Amino acid sequence: MVAAAAADALARLASIPGVRTASALAGERASGAADGSELPVAGPLAALGGLRRGTTVSVAGSTSLLLSLLAAPTTNGAWAALVGMPSAGIAAAAELGVALRRLVLVPRPGADAAAVAGALLDGLDIVVLGGPLCRTVSAAAAARFSRRARNRGAVLIAAGPWPGADVALRCEPGRWHGAATDGHGRLVHRDAVVRRDGRRAAEAAVAVRLPGPDGTVAAAAPSPAETARPAMTVVAP
């Protein structure tokens, strides 16, 4: 069964020197959740705050945004899992900065989806549930998942709407840049606005390039109005 395989994989991870799972550190994680410790996020997304342990975050509008949230945590030693996301591009994840050696993939959990997600929340720092799972989960089941994440000090990320999410991130993609007016040329970057709200988050927004010129999330270029020279002031002699 997939759930048994997930539990076995976590047991093997725990046996590797230097690797510690959440179930072995439940007290430490619970303390981290209580004091509001955060996992970092990359680049301009930091303006919206990090991933606070013990919380549930919903992400809508962009798989690239979701994967970008995993970049800084995994490169800094955190483990993450993608559950029920068979179409997630691993090459794209790597380009966005995700450390693939710390990424667990369960593309088709089947009927064991709840057990798999529960086991992974016990063992990893971040668990991402794919869109199809989010659309079929009941409000009661969503509350149980969120409670488990909170108790373990993990971060649960939903790739879509999630009842009672602590933080909701929504990406509003803009225009691509790089191609000529006749449509020829190479697309270089895309403008986007990421908006934040949720029951435990104040409304905020940040303009980004997703992806940026190097494939990762980057700060948006200032608008022409922001870069224009200030008006001259005439000083009387």
Descriptive overview:
- The chain has 237 residues and is α/β, with parallel strands linked by helices.
- It has a domain at 2-12 and 38-168: 3-Layer(aba) Sandwich (Rossmann fold), CATH 3.40.50.
- Helices cover 32% and strands 22% of the residues.
- The protein contains 8 helices and 11 strands.
- It has helices at residues 2-15, 26-34, 63-75, 90-95, 113-123, 131-136, 139-152, 224-227; strands spanning 38-39, 51-52, 56-60, 80-83, 103-106, 126-129, 155-158, 167-177, 189-197, 204-209, 218-219.
- The strands form 2 sheets. A 9-stranded mixed sheet has the order 5-4-6-7-3-8-9-10-11, with helices on both faces. A two-stranded antiparallel sheet has the order 1-2.
- Helix 5 (113-123) runs parallel beside helix 7.
- The longest helix is centred in the N-terminal third of the chain and has 14 residues, at 2-15.
- It is globular and about 55 Å long.
- The N and C termini lie far apart (86 Å).
- The model is unreliable at 16-27, 224-229 and 231-235 (pLDDT under 50).
- Residues 218-231 have a biased composition (Low complexity).
- Residues 217-237 are annotated as: Disordered.
Task: Lay out the secondary structure.
Blueprint lengths: L1 H14 L10 H9 L3 E2 L11 E2 L3 E5 L2 H13 L4 E4 L6 H6 L7 E4 L6 H11 L2 E4 L1 H6 L2 H14 L2 E4 L8 E11 L11 E9 L6 E6 L8 E2 L4 H4 L10
Parallel strand pairs: 3-7, 3-8, 4-5, 4-6, 6-7
Antiparallel strand pairs: 1-2, 8-9, 9-10, 10-11
Helix pairs in contact: 1-5, 5-7
